[in-house]
Structure formats: C-alpha cells, structure tokens
C-alpha cells in the first residue's frame, strides 16, 4: 500500500462525498484508539468542519487521556477541528437502573449493556450531526466490519460513511504513523473501550489483528497449518459466520408482485 497516496485518496473521497450530499462537515466519536484517531485525522484533512466528540461511560482514565491528547493535537494542527465532551455515564446508569432485574446468565446481561453503551454514543453523534448538518464518520476497519463483525449493530456500526473500512488494521496503523498520530495511541493495545476495564480486543476475540488478517485472506492448504494457525482460522470462521447478520443487508420479506399470497 502506498501510505500517503492512500491517505490523500481517502481525504478526497470524504470531501467529495460531503460536497455531493450537501453536508456542512463531519462529526466523529474519538475514543483514544487507533481507528478513531486515524479516521478523525483523515476527516480533518478535508478542511471541512470536524466536530470530535468524547463520550466517556465509566471509561478507563488511560483511554480518556489518549482521546483528549489526540483531540488537542487535531485542534493544534487543523483549525477546522472543534470538540465536545459529553458525559454519558449518568445516562447509562439511569438506563441500567430502569431495567428489570435479570435472572440467569450474567454474561448475556453484561454483553447487552456493552452494546447499549455503543448505541447511546451513536444516538449522541446523530444529535450533533442533525444539529449542524454534519455526517457521522465511521471508525471501523476491514477486519472488524467485513471479517469478524466486531462492532455493535446500530452502535458504532451506525454511521453515514466509512473511510477506513477497506483498510486492514495494520494498514490503519501505517496511515496513522505517516500522518503523525500520537505515539501513545500507536502503541496502545486495541480495545473497544466498552467494558470499563482494561481488556483488549485480543482478550475478547482470542486472536490478534495480524492473525485475523492472515485468516481473512487464507486460501491455501489447511493440512500444512500449525496448531495455532488452525486455531486462529477456527476463531475467524466462527465469528464470521455468527456475525453475518451485521455484514449482510437486513432481510426484507418481499411480497409477490401480484399480491396473491396463498
């Protein structure tokens, strides 16, 4: 990949799309991770107004600090960048308090609340998008969006356009480094930041992004694979199959044209 040429291509694509649909600018959630840092930098490079929104929900201090430093860096280098912090912890806590008590599997309860965090953030971003006439910029990469479906449907998957969704995670890192994204973001272990603790994406998935990229592109002889490679391939295929409902269009019940259902 030609890194700077690819960055310029994405920047121009963002600008062209915004102009085509008549959008006044962009809004993006900044988490302190590599994907949001890269996507926000690319959006800032368009010259159109960019609103970076930080939305902590019981967030680890390290994640908050990285997000704040990145936003400060953007504002220093791109005069079109503004920011807004929205403390969503009270809203999340109120929502949890309003839910009925859950009996049974606590893991399902926790996972449902993790997805709720992402959906509250999506709602917040669309508030600002509607307020200013902006487009919501997605932060998903190719492995997450089209490989294993590692995102929340109608949460961080609810966006207007996806500038880095055709980039592998390693390619996202390459662009971020070339564009001068802060070192603390470049070296931080990837995390979705939805659990309120220090668990990483690899902890949750069971494989690293380079391993998943390998699995996503693998088409060789499985008999020649190592034990670890076979394990990674199983992880990738299991998640890819389980999350097809995120990656495929919503099923529509199409009524026969003559409307004569028997």
List its traits.
single chain, 262 residues, alpha/beta, Rossmann fold, 12 helices, 54% helix, 7% strand
Can you summarize the main beta sheet? 4 strands, parallel
The backbone outline, from C-alpha atoms, is globular
For the biggest β-sheet, the strand order reads 3-2-1-4
Structural class: alpha/beta
Task: Give the % helix.
Answer: 40-55%
Strand and helix order: HEHEHEHHEHHHHHHH
Q: Give the tally of β-strands.
A: 4
CATH class call: Alpha Beta
> Which strand-content bin applies to the residues?
5-15%
Number of domains: 1
Round the mean pLDDT to the nearest integer and report it.
94
N→C terminal distance:
55 Å
| Poorly predicted runs of 5 or more residues | none
Q: In CATH terms, what is the fold-level topology?
A: Rossmann fold
Question: Would you give an account of this structure?
Answer:
This protein is of the alpha/beta class and 262 residues long. The protein has a single domain, classed as Rossmann fold (3-Layer(aba) Sandwich). 54% of the residues lie in helices and 7% in strands. The chain has a four-stranded parallel sheet with strand order 3-2-1-4, with helices on both faces. Helix 1 crosses helix 7, helix 2 packs across helix 7 and helix 10 crosses helix 11. The longest helix has 27 residues.
């Amino acid at each position: 990949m030609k890194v700077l040429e690819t960055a310029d291509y994405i920047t121009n694509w963002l600008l062209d799309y915004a102009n085509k649909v008549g959008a006044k600018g962009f809004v993006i959630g900044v988490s302190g991770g590599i994907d949001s840092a890269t996507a926000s930098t690319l959006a800032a490079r368009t010259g159109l107004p960019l609103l970076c929104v930080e939305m902590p929900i019981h967030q680890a201090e390290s994640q908050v600090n990285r997000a704040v430093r990145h936003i400060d860096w953007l504002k220093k280098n791109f005069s079109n960048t503004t920011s807004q912090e929205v403390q969503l912890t009270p809203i999340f806590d109120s929502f949890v308090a309003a839910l009925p008590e859950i009996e049974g599997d606590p893991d399902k309860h926790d996972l449902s609340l993790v997805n709720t965090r992402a959906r509250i953030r999506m709602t917040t971003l669309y508030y600002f998008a509607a307020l200013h006439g902006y487009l919501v910029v997605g932060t998903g990469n190719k492995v997450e969006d089209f490989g294993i479906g590692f995102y929340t449907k109608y949460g961080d998957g609810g966006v207007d356009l996806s500038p880095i969704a055709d980039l592998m995670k390693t390619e996202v890192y390459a662009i971020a480094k070339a564009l001068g994204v802060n070192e603390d973001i470049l070296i931080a272990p990837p995390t979705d930041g939805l659990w309120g603790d220090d668990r990483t994406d690899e902890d949750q998935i069971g494989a690293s992004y380079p391993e998943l990229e390998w699995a996503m592109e693998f088409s060789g002889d499985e008999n020649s694979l190592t034990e670890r490679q076979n394990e990674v391939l199983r992880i990738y295929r299991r998640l890819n199959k389980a999350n097809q409902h995120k990656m495929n269009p919503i099923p529509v019940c199409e009524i026969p044209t003559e409307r004569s259902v028997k």
